[in-house]
């Protein structure tokens, strides 16, 4: 039986996951009092609060599927059910696959769900990219509404490459483009065709009605996630204000944009704990809330994916 090499992304993710879990086990053994306090906080969250937070997670997933469906090009022959299936199964795949391979699966599933007139892979890629743009844009809107834009903008500017690096990268890109144009005319023609299809996938961003609908659904998804965290914080008697919740959400989503471990185990909790602790939450309460929220997110994604897979099979597949 062939074994994965250590240098492969899958192996690196598995090793990182094992390291995270090992580190958690060591910290729990060394700091038993704090670990006991975290466990006490976890078991003191009422079942009704957990059920409410799970329902909000499922609402978040539904709004995200609606966001993708709303931003699809007008000529895409995809129903809401087919779009929801592609999105949710892709999100489920992202839990286990390295390098966000679930986003690539969304593209493939959107292509296969087109029936007799399938949406092309480049166009589906453009639609998924448009969905990401709307998702990020609405998070910026939330930050603007809570006064966090300046803080985040300063952090992003501090990480942007210098002018020299930017110019060098542009020069290399232009050189590659000209080389393909002059040496491989067929490649250039194919590249032009792919660019056109990708632009068609992004075309809904130029449609005010579809963009507005997608933004509304995206705001619904972010709001549902904020409320889920708010419910868990309130269950432990630590109600946070909207700006504090948005700050924690921004820290979390910026940190997990590049997956490091399986299902972002350890990384997710550490980032959310950091964001919550900035608002004055005790460490043990923040760890308990982050652990419960991550668990509910994973449970909600699995429930949603399982339900849609069963629905597709009952419908006879596509």
Explain what this protein looks like in three dimensions:
The two termini are 34 Å apart. 77% of the residues lie in helices and 0% in strands. By secondary structure, it is mostly helical. The chain has one domain. The chain contains 13 helices and no strands.
Notable features of this structure?
single chain, 318 residues
The number of E-state strands comes to 0
Biggest sheet features: none
Shape: globular
Mean pLDDT across the residues is 79
Structural class: mainly alpha
Which consecutive residue ranges, at least 5 long each, have pLDDT under 50? 150-178, 187-193
- How far apart, in Å, are the first and last alpha carbons? 34 Å
Run of helices and strands: HHHHHHHHHHHHH
Radius of gyration: 22 Å
Strand content: under 5%
- How many individual helices? 13
Helix content: over 70%
> Into how many domains do the coordinates divide?
1
SSE order and pairing:
Blueprint: H1 9-30, H2 32-43, H3 47-70, H4 80-96, H5 101-112, H6 121-145, H7 149-159, H8 163-183, H9 185-201, H10 208-235, H11 242-255, H12 267-277, H13 283-314
């Amino acid at each position: 039986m062939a074994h994965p090499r250590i240098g492969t992304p899958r192996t690196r993710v598995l090793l990182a996951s094992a390291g995270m879990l090992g580190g958690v086990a060591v910290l729990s053994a060394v700091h038993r009092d704090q670990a006991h306090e975290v466990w006490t906080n976890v078991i003191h969250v009422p079942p009704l609060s957990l059920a409410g937070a799970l329902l909000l997670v499922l609402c978040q997933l539904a709004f995200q599927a609606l966001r993708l469906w709303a931003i699809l090009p007008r000529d895409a022959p995809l129903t809401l059910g087919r779009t929801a299936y592609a999105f949710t199964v892709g999100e489920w795949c992202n839990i286990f696959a390295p390098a966000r391979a679930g986003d690539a699966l969304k593209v493939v599933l959107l292509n296969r769900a087109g029936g007799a007139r399938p949406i092309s892979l480049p166009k589906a890629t453009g639609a998924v990219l448009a969905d990401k743009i709307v998702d990020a844009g609405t998070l910026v809107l939330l930050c603007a509404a809570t006064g966090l834009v300046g803080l985040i903008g300063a952090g992003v500017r501090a990480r942007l490459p210098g002018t020299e690096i930017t110019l060098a990268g542009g020069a290399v890109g232009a050189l590659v483009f000209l080389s393909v144009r002059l040496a491989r005319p067929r490649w250039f023609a194919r590249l032009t065709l792919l660019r056109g299809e990708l632009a068609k996938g992004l075309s809904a961003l130029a449609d005010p009605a579809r963009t507005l609908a997608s933004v509304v659904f995206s705001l619904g998804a972010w709001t549902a996630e904020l409320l889920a965290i708010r419910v868990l914080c309130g269950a432990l008697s630590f109600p946070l204000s909207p700006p504090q919740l948005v700050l924690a959400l921004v820290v979390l989503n910026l940190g997990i944009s590049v997956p490091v471990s399986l299902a972002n185990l350890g990384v997710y909790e550490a980032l959310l704990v950091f964001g919550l602790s900035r608002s004055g939450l005790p460490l043990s309460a923040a760890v308990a809330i982050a652990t419960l929220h991550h668990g509910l997110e994973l449970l909600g994604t699995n429930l949603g994916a399982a339900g849609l897979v069963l629905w597709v099979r009952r419908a006879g597949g596509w």
